């Protein structure tokens, strides 16, 4: 069986993800790895070919697999559906120094960058991204297509709903077993925000303590 592995997204983040993929599949040759990006097809990035999605699908390899290195969760979901329709395997990628402790459940398509940590008794949905130096502490529940930028501190007893985006360096205060702190569906937590109470769905919060960013 010949393997052909793609990193979807020839971007800055994609450049960081490719070495993690190579490390995880260290027995494969370099030419078996490519970037997928319709906007940059026909070029190279860090000496890897950049293919259009169509060219990737039409490659003659008997087994194709992809990790989606795109932070926008809406785009990530659309691409995941497209890959499903074309029978492409979703890869779960984690850096070799990722720490995962007891009773942790993670859905398909996850991506854990270097120095990420999941402690114990955690449930995470599909296509979760945890960028460098992020952690999820005990008794957290995280939905589908949630994105952590670098250095997110997600403390215990927190529920984060689908498509939420947590910005670089954000700190989310620990909840309690009977009253977890909730980040609502599609909410955005701004860079460096300190979240001390639940965040409604669809809003953006910024600052310390975090407050809703009002649209002008």
Q: Which labels suit this protein?
A:
216 residues; alpha/beta; UDP N-Acetylglucosamine Acyltransferase, domain 1; eight-stranded mixed β-sheet; six-stranded mixed β-sheet; 3 helices; PglD N-terminal domain-containing protein; Trans_hexapeptide_repeat; AcTrfase_PglD-like; Trimer_LpxA-like_sf
Summarize the structure.
It comes from Acinetobacter tjernbergiae DSM 14971 = CIP 107465. This is PglD N-terminal domain-containing protein. The chain has 216 residues and is α/β, with parallel strands linked by helices.
Structural summary, described in words:
This protein is α/β, with parallel strands linked by helices and 216 residues long. It has 2 domains: 4-91, 3-Layer(aba) Sandwich (Rossmann fold), CATH 3.40.50.20; 94-204, UDP N-Acetylglucosamine Acyltransferase, domain 1 (3 Solenoid), CATH 2.160.10.10. It is built from 3 helices and 25 strands. It has helices at residues 12-24, 53-58, 73-85, and strands at 3-8, 33-36, 44-45, 48-51, 63-68, 89-90, 93-94, 99-100, 104-106, 111-112, 117-118, 122-124, 129-130, 135-136, 141-142, 147-148, 153-154, 158-160, 165-166, 171-172, 181-183, 188-189, 194-195, 204-206, 211-212. An 8-stranded mixed sheet has the order 7-10-13-16-19-22-24-25. Strand 24 (204-206) and strand 25 form a beta hairpin. The longest helix is centred in the N-terminal third of the chain and has 13 residues, at 12-24. 38% of the residues are buried. The model has no long low-confidence stretch (mean pLDDT 97).
């Amino acid at each position: 069986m010949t393997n052909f592995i793609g990193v979807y997204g020839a971007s800055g983040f994609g450049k960081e993800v490719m070495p993690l993929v190579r490390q995880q599949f260290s027995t494969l040759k370099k030419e078996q790895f490519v970037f997928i990006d319709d906007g940059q097809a026909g070029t190279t990035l860090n000496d890897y070919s950049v293919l259009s999605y169509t060219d990737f699908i039409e490659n003659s390899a008997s087994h194709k697999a992809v990790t989606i290195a795109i932070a926008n969760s809406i785009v990530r979901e659309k691409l995941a559906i497209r890959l499903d329709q074309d029978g492409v395997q979703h890869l779960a990628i984690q850096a070799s120094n990722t720490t995962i402790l007891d009773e942790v459940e993670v859905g398909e398509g996850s991506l854990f960058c270097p120095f990420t940590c999941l402690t114990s008794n955690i449930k995470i949905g599909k296509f979760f991204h945890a960028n460098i130096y992020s952690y999820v502490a005990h008794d957290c529940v995280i939905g589908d297509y949630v994105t952590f930028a670098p250095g997110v501190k997600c403390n215990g007893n927190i529920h984060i709903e689908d498509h939420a985006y947590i910005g670089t360096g954000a700190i989310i205060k620990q909840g309690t077993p009977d009253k977890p702190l909730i980040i609502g569906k599609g909410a955005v937590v701004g860079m460096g925000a300190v979240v001390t109470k639940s965040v409604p769905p669809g809003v953006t919060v910024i600052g310390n303590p975090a407050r809703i960013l009002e649209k002008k």
